[in-house]
UniProtKB/TrEMBL annotation:
Record's protein name: Methylisocitrate lyase
Gene this chain is encoded by: prpB
Broad EC category: lyase
Keyword Lyase recorded: yes
Species lineage: Bacteria, Bacillati, Actinomycetota, Actinomycetes, Micrococcales
Reaction(s) catalysed (UniProt annotation): (2S,3R)-3-hydroxybutane-1,2,3-tricarboxylate = pyruvate + succinate
Amino acid sequence: MLFSRETPAAKRRAFREALASGDVLRLPGAFNPLSARLIEDKGFDGVYVSGAVLSADLGLPDIGLTTLSEVSGRAGQIARVTDLPTLVDADTGFGEPMNVARTVQTMEDAGVAGMHLEDQVNPKRCGHLDGKEVVGLGEAVRRVRAAVDGRRDPDFLVMARTDVRGTEPGDRGLRLAVDRAKALADAGADAIFPEAMRDLSEFEAVASALDVPVLANMTEFGKSELFTVKQLGDAGARIVIYPVTLLRMAMGAAERTLDTLNAEGTQDAVVGDMQTRARLYELVDYAGYNHFDSTVFTYEPGQNNQH
């Protein structure tokens, strides 16, 4: 009811403990607070807030156009409604190293459990597009150190993402990714996000070189195959994200529904595919608000059509 029953500090501690357990944590991407509720209800381990999804939600491409206030505001809305830890995409940190430190503290205030920070130049690009450029190693290290120095809660997870794999072909790109991941971990990163790995052997190469957890990005239509959780765990990954999956499914369904309305003049043919009124009310805990006022929730399934 209302918001999460857990404090942000408790969720951060739980996230750290779960990572230390050795289990593979599954974090689907939430495109709004209600979808975060659904992720928790289905038994996942955490919630991911994707920069690409937030950009798309605003009708923008993923090229660094969103602001710190937009990202932290949406991340805070999502984190507030779930007891699960929330990991947020902070792009390149929204500025120079001093801005990165402020970004960390703003995300702490938003109640999220951690964020990842990447080493692309500005303006950045989607991690699975060609033509990316990264900053020099020194600048990437300064960003991570600023993030670590800026945090006030030692349990807040600072993850470093490197996009260097996509800047060079073949084995050289992988060697650069491994070397940079090690340097970012040495700079204080609590976990590493090696973007655009080509296959399981590349995940394994990065994970085996590090003493910190590694994240695997299972985004559709990208550079990586869509591996199973078991395959990724066997390769050494400890976090798996599905950043755009729910948004893509929701938008696909929305487009098909609009086509049906255009073609048939009614949505009747797709009502069976919809989330019912009863299920929506369950997710928002409508009945729980009777704690404040017993007249708030008087709905019963089947009353005035359960949809």
